[in-house]
Amino acid sequence: MSLFRDRSESGRQLAERLDAYGHREDAVVLGLARGGVPVAAEVARTLALPLDVFLVRKLGVPRQEELAMGAIASGGARVMNKQVVDALALDRAVIEATVAREREELERREREYRDGRPATDVSGRLGILVDDGLATGASMRAAIQALKQRRAAGIVVAVPIAPPQTCSELEHEADAVVCVRTPEPFHAVGLWYQDFPQVSDEEVRQLLAQAQAGAGTRA
Question: Is 219's pLDDT higher than 60?
């Protein structure tokens, strides 16, 4: 299976699968920060939809940060991986300390990315949640839960790459799931990209500002 050149190319391929949602007045594209924002920017541009960032923070197990025990999202949503928590017998105080630390970082990014612009109101709208790929799907589950709490009219999960099992599981939580590629074995998101650098805070700000300017021009 060929690799995506970069996040922009994966976003363009993803947009082709989302063509039915283009130009809808009730839809908004939400890029999971940070890696999902460049992908979401291409989707929003191609489909002529508004773009916003959606803040989700993985809750890494102490001293095993790559292992997710859950995730939190803007608005207070929290999703825990009960299997990981139970298997490692994680203490509640440890969990809460991790949540508090990640909540602080989430709120910092909320302030920084939008330059004072309010978060998009998703109530009664279709939210298209975009990331650069999924592994376990913990962060996406937190995002889905957050959109449900905000009373979104519908939720579409859209990613370029993910394991087939993760996509299948998310179909029970979202109204639609669009995965461009579902390789098996999967291993890690970054292995399916030729160029997969860290996305900076500044790049997120620039992409959001460009989308805002483009929306003003279309209006």
Answer: no
